TrEMBL record, chains A, B:
Transmembrane region(s): none
Keyword line: Disulfide bond, Glycoprotein, Glycosidase, Hydrolase, Lipid metabolism, Lysosome, Signal
One BP annotation, GO: glycoside catabolic process
PROSITE patterns named in the record: ALPHA_GALACTOSIDASE
Domain Alpha galactosidase A C-terminal: 313-394
Full protein name: Alpha-galactosidase
Subunit structure: Homodimer.
Places the protein is found: Lysosome
Species whose genome carries this gene: Astatotilapia calliptera (Eastern happy)
Gene: NAGA
GO molecular function, one term: alpha-galactosidase activity
Organism domain of life: Eukaryota
Signal peptide positions on this chain: 1-18
């Protein structure tokens, strides 16, 4: 009875609370354990890869010593399976003593001493997704304070083993509890992913007020199919999603799998570019100790990062979807610049796509174009027809530096680039390459 | 009427004709244009990539000068879209005069001078798949003679725009016609792919008598999904397919797409390894002028090639299919050796798979194991439990040098390794890494 009254009181105050922690004015960047290391707790047989303080210290060393930190990758984030199966005798969460013998606070110091930040993981239900102790409603204040005491910098708050009503109470409550600790703690909410990710079930205005970022959709897996599935969902629902994003509040399409096992170099560039267009958090989930130079060069691409981190914080949109499998994405950037992304869904050969900036709704004028992945530059009049050769499952990404003169309200309302884009872009090339069998 | 009588006579003799050209005692290796270059005939705008004599000479230069030839990659094969849309005034096929100004014979000489061989493409119907002139029944002898006059070394005979009855006549007829020229010309038949690839519609005994290799299934595309789809089909139907293969007669799961745009390094190793297990023809379809060193090292792996080229010519089989997504393949090799392949269909993280050689039906004894992609060696007793860590969509491939003592007839009849393999391999590791969402 007491708990029920308490919950009701929380419900009244929690939903109107604004998240005023001043954090993540651009999408957060760092490293997150889950996709690559899952719930590997077998430190005896797999000591280099199990979820342990050693793994996070290893990754911190790499971020700090190999120049990742200077690029903006500063968060080192723990996911599920870090804790003991039991709370301590004062009811607090505690890390697994064998795998985190130094404790979380010491780990946080290790990171802070290197200019990095520590993220931790909790779950709104009785149990986490992997059945470790969760943080249900009656534990929220305690656990928020524990995380603050440990000097944690970010919390991913998952939603397994909770229902919609509990989530509606719990996610705002955790926001309030984190704020109440006085420690700035970035707050990642998995809430919308458990509610289908779309209005009216999901209230993105509220989310922007209580969370710094939120997972809208399912977990990424180490495959191109998974990336495509996520990209499809985010851009098919761009009218609902793009207005939600902005400084301090981000849609999160999940981790970067660049440097893992499932993506080709083309596909890796595509994920980096699409995540930049989406103003997505950039959480790498790979082994920074052994990552290839090719994957590194993509994750370290400074122009792609700067597009991702643009101060305006406007999430980009898909503006063209051709029958040929070519799609064009656009994101307005500060200084009246913009990013243009040409993407091919084809699986045959490089496709020569012909268009012009005016066909892509750029206003009259001369533009300077910078190719993000080749460093080539060019000047281009709006009316000039050009050809971009886009590799199968690959991208061509441009930073366009001259004024695009867009109207922000029209953009959000989809009036400029309502999807599907008005058909002013003809297929200029016959499709000779399809339909063959054997 | 005259033609009909002629065809009837051909039908009587053609189907009993054995292909006695002595060619391709091991699976043919080389380069084939289709997957990467398709029907790109736009030499004006895309001169480096269009189907032209320049493209084939470029690839010949690379094969000859970069050490591919010495590894066995000797065929340079033209696919569709090479010819003029019209036959010449004597009714003969002729190459497109703009794209092949020197003619095919000159191109053949260019290759022969470099120790390479030339393959060409025809189609059993009125038109090729891309609507160039085909080689229907009444043109078979003429075109076979034309190819021989041009000193061509291989023919891929496609099946678009022909029906089952025409194919039943035409494929044996072309075999006979090629033999009748007196020039050894390797003969690749697309026939089974047009008939579903399986008995009783497809007669593999007959195919082995008239063709050196045959396409059983659909075209490969530049994607991992496509590779998986092909692998699934070939191993689900291994009971029907493996007995058909042997020296001079090969199942063809289509080209290697390693070095193109759609496969990660793991997936590239997997295609190379699975094609080696399958005793598949190794036709690269990529740009040898710009191929990455990573892709090169896989295509140039001498142990993988030697397994593919094993003199016994026995096509390997899948012997284990675990619920965890781990599969094991096995191929018997000459000198009583064998190849073992561990493959992961997972998309999460490296999987530690525990087994032993005795669980994989090896007889008692001590074996020497050579890791094809890491060059590590080990000695292993049949009873020793070992762990292989298999990356997502990746493989671990072993050459096992000691006697495997298999019974060839039992192998073909699936008695040793009937699929599904008798369940003697327990899942030794709990599946802690699945089912999580957000």
């Amino acid at each position: 009875m007491h708990v029920a009254v308490l919950l009701f009181a929380f419900a009244l105050t929690g939903t109107t609370l604004a998240l005023d922690n001043g954090l993540m004015r651009t999408p957060p960047m760092g490293w997150l354990a889950w996709e690559r290391y899952r719930c590997d707790i077998d430190c005896e047989n797999d000591p280099k890869n199990c979820i342990s303080e050693n793994l996070f210290m290893d990754m911190a060393d790499r971020l700090a010593e190999d120049g990742w930190k200077e690029l903006g990758y500063v968060y080192v984030n723990i996911d599920d399976c870090w804790s003991s199966k039991q709370r301590d005798d004062q009811g607090r969460l505690q890390p697994d003593p064998k795998r985190f013998p130094g404790g979380i606070k010491k780990l946080a110091h290790y990171l802070h001493n290197r200019g990095l930040k520590l993220g931790i993981y909790g779950d709104m239900g009785k149990l986490t997704c992997m059945a470790y102790p969760g943080t249900p409603l009656d534990k929220i204040e305690l656990d928020a304070q524990t995380f603050a005491d440990w000097e944690v910098d970010m919390l991913k708050y998952d939603g397994c083993y909770s229902n919609a009503m509990e989530q509606e109470l719990g996610y705002p409550l955790m926001s309030k509890a984190l704020n109440a600790t006085g420690r700035p703690i970035g707050y990642s909410c998995s809430w919308p992913a458990y509610q289908g990710g779309l209005p009216p079930k999901v209230n993105y205005t509220q989310l922007g007020e209580i969370c710094n970022l939120w997972r809208n959709y399912g977990d990424i897996q180490d495959s191109w199919d998974s990336v495509l599935n996520i990209v499809d969902w985010f851009f098919e629902n761009q009218d609902a999603l793009t207005p939600a994003a902005g400084p301090g509040r981000w849609n999160d399409p999940d981790m970067l799998i660049i440097g893992d096992f499932g993506l080709s170099m083309e596909q890796s560039r595509s994920q980096m570019a699409l995540w930049a267009i989406m103003a997505a958090p950039l959480f790498i989930s790979n082994d920074l100790r052994t990552i290839s130079s090719g994957a590194q060069s993509i994750l370290r691409n400074e122009m792609a990062i700067s597009i991702n981190q643009d101060a305006l914080g406007i999430q980009g949109r898909r503006i063209v979807k051709e029958k040929s499998g070519i799609e064009v994405f656009w994101r307005p950037l500060s200084k009246n610049a913009s990013a243009l992304l040409f993407f091919s869904r084809r699986t045959d050969m490089p496709y020569r796509y012909t268009t012009s900036l005016s066909k892509l709704s750029y206003t009259a004028g001369s533009y300077k174009v910078f190719n993000v992945f080749t460093d080539e530059t060019a000047s281009l009049k709006d009316s000039t027809e050009f050809v971009v050769s886009v590799n199968p499952t690959g991208v061509v990404m441009w930073y366009v530096s001259a004024p695009a003169k867009f109207n922000l309200r029209q953009f959000y309302q989809g009036e400029i680039f309502r999807f599907p884009f008005k058909k002013i872009i003809p297929s200029t090339r016959k499709h000779r390459n399809e339909g063959k069998r054997c």
